[in-house]
Amino acid sequence: MGNYVFFRNCVSFSQEEVYANGGLRDMVDRAWPITRKTFTKWVDLENLRDVEVSLGYEDHPKRGMTMAQDCHVSYHKSKLFGKRVYYFVHSAIEYIFIPPEDRGT
Questions:
Q1: pLDDT tens, residue by residue, 93-103
Q2: Which residues pair with residue 76 across a beta bridge?
Q3: Helix/strand/coil (H/E/C) assignment for every residue in the chain
């Protein structure tokens, strides 16, 4: 199991963080698409479930739509300010996951 944890989404980035060298714009421009399976190997699954529930997804298909079933969500790996990140895109918003040791930065 991975340990990358939710950091924040793109909406909370300042204009400076978006356009800085290695910032959000570069992260998106240089991203590689990955599968959900690869994404879930790298991120903390409990943390991911919390984010999914906050977006209105169910935790089991018998209860309704899960994020895993949503073909409009895409998964990516990239670098943000020189550090490896994994993120997913939901409704044109990037939800970024980082190693837990980088949370204070």
A1: 999 999 988 87
A2: 33, 87
A3: CCCEEEEEEHHHCCHHHHHCCCCHHHHHHCCEEECHHHHHHHECHHHHHHHHHHCCCCCCHHHCCCHHHCCCCEEEEEEECCEEEEEEEECCEEEEEECHHHCCC
Domain spans of the chain, in order of start: 5-102
Q: Note the pLDDT tens digit of each residue in 54-70.
A: 999 999 999 999 999 99
Q: Which long-range contacts (CB under 8 A, 24 or more apart) does 91-95 make?
A: 93/9, 93/10, 93/11, 94/9, 94/10, 94/24, 94/27, 94/28, 95/6, 95/9, 95/51
Kindly give, in sequence order, each residue whose CB lies less than 8 Å from that of residue 20, ignoring residues fewer than 6 positions away: 81
How far, in Å, CA of 7 to CA of 102, rounded?
9
pTM, entire model:
0.93
